[in-house]
Design a protein that fits this description.
Distance between the termini: 19 Å
Strand content: 15-25%
Radius of gyration: 15 Å
CATH architecture: Alpha-Beta Barrel
Order of helices and strands: EHEEHEHEHEHEHH
Helix content: 40-55%
CATH superfamily: Metal-dependent hydrolases
Number of strands: 7
InterPro entries: Pol/histidinol_Pase-like
Strand order of the largest sheet: 1-2-3-4-5-6-7
Structural class: alpha/beta
Organism: Acidianus brierleyi
Number of helices: 7
Largest sheet: 7 strands, parallel
CATH class: Alpha Beta
Protein name: RNase P subunit p30
Length: 185
């Protein structure tokens, strides 16, 4: 079962089924009712983080994009958070202590492909082998932005990933994320 962990446009759901995805998480914009909704909280301080958590009333997958070390630490510890989003804007906050916390709390790290450079992908791959479970997301708003599973696989292999690990990150980890987060959903 293939899962796309983030799309931003409801109209892409039938197209994603045609390219091979069985389930897609739709970014919640309060316009649609859909079985698999997710909400992204972007926080640079603890007050924004707590307000973001408090504003979510319905059950959905909650992802956090931390912009400071404190928010990252509290996001990893918080059981409501399903995954941590890392891209070029916040990669610098990952330190060894936060990597240990990610592993200890079994949190997933989501890498949005449109806002991640080749350098970030190259640096994340060795960390993902040892420290955490990683998922790579399309963040599609348009049909041109959809990453097919084979495109993701090729992209990761080009950046130095083992084929076996890349397959695990594309096929297995999104399913593990869904199962792991089902307690909050």
């Amino acid at each position: 079962m293939l899962i796309e962990t983030c799309i931003k446009n409801h109209d892409l759901l039938p197209i994603l089924k045609k390219v091979g995805y069985n389930i897609s998480f739709l970014e919640d914009n309060f316009q649609y009712s859909y079985k698999y909704l997710r909400k992204t909280i972007i926080a640079s301080n603890l007050k924004e983080f707590k307000n973001g958590i408090a504003s979510i009333k319905k059950k959905r997958l909650i992802f956090l994009k931390p912009l400071s070390k404190d928010v990252l630490r509290y996001g990893i510890i918080n059981s409501k958070i399903s995954g941590i989003i890392i891209d070029d804007s916040n990669f610098r906050i990952l330190k060894k202590t936060s990597l240990n916390l990610l592993r200890q709390h079994n949190k997933f790290v989501e890498i949005p492909l449109p806002s991640s450079s080749s350098y970030l992908i190259y640096k994340i791959i060795p960390l993902a082998y040892k420290w955490f479970n990683v998922v790579f997301s399309s963040y599609s708003q348009d049909i041109n932005e959809i990453w097919t599973p084979i495109s993701k696989l090729n992209y990761l292999v080009i950046h130095g990933a083992d084929e076996e690990e890349a397959l695990r990150w594309i096929y297995d980890n999104p399913l593990k994320l869904l199962i792991h987060a089902s307690n909050n959903y």
